[in-house]
Amino acid sequence: MTRVLAITNQKGGVGKTTTSVNLAAGLAKAGKRVLLVDLDPQGNATMGSGIDKRTLPVSIYQVLLGLCTAETARQRSEAGGYDVMPANRDLAGAEVELVELEHRETRLKSALEPILAEYDFILLDCPPSLNMLTVNGLAVADAVMIPMQCEYYALEGLSDLVNTIKRVRQHLNPRLEIEGLLRTMYDPRNTLAQQVSAQLQSHFGDKVYSTVIPRNVRLAEAPSYGAPAVTFDQGCKGSLAYIALAAEILSRHSISAGA
């Protein structure tokens, strides 16, 4: 059974793309068939997977507009061991063009249906805003993963995102749930980070992943080499954390690595 996860947060700079790329690589290392869909016009997940967004023959933009199929647009990330539905700046135009099209909120869902069974996990790297691209991601997802820093403003943005998920569940996707909250860029020496982390666990309970992603230079460096940190430097603290996160997700769904 394919698990579709939308990785999203309306707040930027929380490690969303870093999480998408490294979780994809971590799940691939565990023997899973993974597709990473880049829904952000910046194309950072595409570049971080070792695919040049400047030379794409087709991308998720053409898929959403019905100009090509998902099968045609996907590429292999040799650096990460998973497939990628790449994006570039063309995708910025899709926001306007989708408004005129029928079933604009569910076009990604329709495009992915023919290839769903080919994957164990499909990860959607959503843009840091609630726009038509994010709505398309939430409409097809089984669940939402929310990467967030443990700081004051993060809590404020979280309540907005939870309300958005409720609205999507009500109008577009009744099965949508919160998969989990992921604490990223975590510094245990920071008192505020500890306090916010405790608040999250108190309010959301087991929806907060026990795995915590630390601040780590190698996670920031890896994209410049066109590879996930999980394959670029397997032994760094950040990579080990994402490998642990992949294992935690697999155990939550009782899926053994390599099964």
Briefly summarize what is shown:
The protein is 43% helix and 17% strand.
- Uncertain segments: none
CATH architecture: 3-Layer(aba) Sandwich
Number of strands: 8
Instruction: Examine the coordinates and then state which fold CATH places here, giving the name of the CATH topology.
Output: Rossmann fold
Q: What is the fourth-level CATH superfamily?
A: P-loop containing nucleotide triphosphate hydrolases
Please tell me the total number of domains: 1
> What structural category do the secondary elements indicate?
alpha/beta
Mean pLDDT over the residues: 92
Structure write-up:
The protein is α/β, with parallel strands linked by helices and 259 residues long. It has one domain (3-252): P-loop containing nucleotide triphosphate hydrolases (Rossmann fold), CATH 3.40.50. 43% of the residues lie in helices and 17% in strands. It has helices spanning 16-29, 44-48, 60-64, 70-73, 91-99, 107-112, 132-140, 152-171, 191-204, 217-221, 229-232, 237-252; strands at 3-7, 34-38, 75-77, 82-85, 121-125, 143-148, 177-186, 208-214. It has an eight-stranded mixed beta sheet, with helices on both faces. Strand 3 (75-77) and strand 4 form a beta hairpin. It is globular. The model has no long low-confidence stretch (mean pLDDT 92).
